[in-house]
From TrEMBL:
Family affiliation: Belongs to the aldo/keto reductase family.
An example Gene Ontology molecular-function term: oxidoreductase activity, acting on the CH-OH group of donors, NAD or NADP as acceptor
SUPFAM superfamilies: NAD(P)-linked oxidoreductase
Species, as recorded: Brachybacterium muris UCD-AY4
InterPro entries tied to this protein: AKR, Aldo/ket_reductase_CS, NAD(P)_OxRdtase_dom_sf, NADP_OxRdtase_dom
Record keywords, A-Z: NADP, Oxidoreductase
Name the record gives this protein: Oxidoreductase
């Protein structure tokens, strides 16, 4: 095996798999969006050469993210949609983001997210949206017991 990818590993498990096998995953897919930025994991990824891939990059269907005044204001400044701005934030932070859609018009809209070039100030404004209660999905570290 030349490379592996993992999904939803908490930091301790990621460190454990690397320590036990000596293999550093090439990519780690995890819930990540402006309301839940996983900064500690992203820093670990960066220092270990691991690509970060977001699942639920648009907030897992959270309409409140796409209606956030910071996101909508930046969208207006760029003549873009809020979804395009959120995807542009991912790109600006070197996060692989593949939003799910089966609607042709949304797929075209998502692909156009490469067009808005967010400034450092705009990226920082979106960075400030990170919240302790931002997780939309289930915590993978919670075994459910």
């Amino acid at each position: 095996m030349r490379s592996i990818g993992v999904s939803n590993f908490p930091l301790a498990q990621l460190e454990e798999i690397i320590g036990a096998t000596g293999v550093v995953p090439m990519i780690h897919q995890l819930e990540l969006h402006p309301y839940f930025q996983q900064r500690e994991l992203r820093a670990f990824h960066q220092s270990n050469g691991i690509l970060t891939q977001a699942w639920g990059p648009l907030g897992q269907g959270r309409s409140d993210l796409l209606e956030n005044p910071v996101i909508t204001a930046i969208a207006k400044e760029h003549d873009a949609t809020p979804a395009q701005v959120v995807l542009a934030w991912h790109l600006g932070r070197d996060i692989v983001a593949i939003p799910k859609s089966v609607t042709p018009s949304r797929i075209v809209e998502n692909l156009a997210a490469v067009e808005p070039r967010l400034t450092d100030v705009e990226l920082e404004r979106i960075d400030a949206l990170d919240r302790a209660d931002g997780r939309a999905g289930r915590d993978p570290a919670d075994s459910g017991h």
